[in-house]
Amino acid sequence: MSITTEQLTHLGSMITHSDINQEYKYEILEFLDNLIHAEKHKDHFILTLAALFDQNNMQEMGVECRKFVF
Question: pLDDT tens per residue, the chain (70 residues)?
Fold first, then answer.
């Protein structure tokens, strides 16, 4: 199971409003931001792969790739 950007954003909001040490809070939020950024790169890569499958008459594989993103 993959965590979604919305879930990471919600977790970040919860951490922002928590009473944990400010230094730790920034460290955790930076980590979450890196995860969100990586998730976007992964989605872009999978969609590019799907387009390549489509261009090579392998539409079924393209559809399967898109299921990971949508």
Answer: 567 888 888 999 999 999 989 999 999 999 999 988 998 899 999 999 999 999 999 999 999 999 988 8
Q: What is the pTM of this model?
A: 0.67
Domain boundaries, the chain: 5-69
Round to whole Å and give the CA distance between 62 and 52: 8
Instruction: State the amino acid at position 56 in one-letter form.
Output: N
DSSP secondary structure letter of residue 56: T
CB 69 within 8 A of CB 47: yes
Write the single-letter amino acid at 1. M
